[in-house]
Amino acid sequence: MLNIDISARHMEVTESMRAYTNDKFGPMDKYLKFLSRLEVVFQSNSMMHIVEVIAHVDNHENFVIKKENKDCYACIDKVHDILEKKLTQIKGKSQDRRRPSNRVAPVSE
Prior knowledge:
Elements: E1 3-9, H1 15-25, E2 35-44, E3 49-57, E4 63-69, H2 72-94
Parallel strand pairs: 1-2
Antiparallel strand pairs: 2-3, 3-4
Helix pairs in contact: 1-2
């Protein structure tokens, strides 16, 4: 299971926000080979919600994705989409590019 740390600055994280975040980022287990931890930080200023995700990636530079919107759940969706694109990109680069041989091995009788 992926380790997801959820915290907040200048606001309280509600149970529904926590559940939605876990539901959204939980299926990222397919990237567990190189994704070790996610930090999700919620912020709120006068009218906008800001969601920041810090992805800790093994053998790669950690990266930060930050989006703001009036709706907190829309921010989570946007950040999730960007994170999934980035992780798919990293996964594609890390896969072996060599093609398997087309030769058929001789069968001994």
